């Protein structure tokens, strides 16, 4: 038996704000949605494949100190794609950790940007190569730990 991630579902506080954020940063498109009070959700797709579902079923902010999701990571083809996403993240004024593109760890060539969505959910966009000319933000720990 072999498993692969089908899609990820996230609870959000404001469906419209979250949809706009994920459409702008990731280029996802809305493949389906409900605007019915008490049952608001959106299915977000990339190239016709469901990637993310957003469910307006929460209040407050993401709690990094609670059990559950640590962060959600997306791989892109190269560092240029990471930089394009970083520009949009900065334009939107989203919380950006580590002040931009950094490697996954000291001496690693892979790396990316680490940031938060409108609800504080921690996200990563990375490339497998090209970030090795920078120092890692934390010695002895993976950058994706958000330390």
UniProtKB/TrEMBL annotation:
<dbReference type="InterPro" id="IPR029068">
    <property type="entry name" value="Glyas_Bleomycin-R_OHBP_Dase"/>
</dbReference>
<dbReference type="Pfam" id="PF00903">
    <property type="entry name" value="Glyoxalase"/>
</dbReference>
<keyword id="KW-0479">Metal-binding</keyword>
<dbReference type="InterPro" id="IPR037523">
    <property type="entry name" value="VOC_core"/>
</dbReference>
<dbReference type="GO" id="GO:0004462">
    <property type="term" value="F:lactoylglutathione lyase activity"/>
</dbReference>
<dbReference type="GO" id="GO:0051213">
    <property type="term" value="F:dioxygenase activity"/>
</dbReference>
<feature type="domain" description="VOC">
    <location>
        <begin position="4"/>
        <end position="128"/>
    </location>
</feature>
<dbReference type="InterPro" id="IPR051332">
    <property type="entry name" value="Fosfomycin_Res_Enzymes"/>
</dbReference>
<keyword id="KW-0560">Oxidoreductase</keyword>
<dbReference type="InterPro" id="IPR004360">
    <property type="entry name" value="Glyas_Fos-R_dOase_dom"/>
</dbReference>
<dbReference type="InterPro" id="IPR018146">
    <property type="entry name" value="Glyoxalase_1_CS"/>
</dbReference>
<protein>
    <submittedName>
        <fullName>Glyoxalase/Bleomycin resistance protein/Dioxygenase superfamily protein</fullName>
    </submittedName>
</protein>
<keyword id="KW-0223">Dioxygenase</keyword>
<dbReference type="GO" id="GO:0046872">
    <property type="term" value="F:metal ion binding"/>
</dbReference>
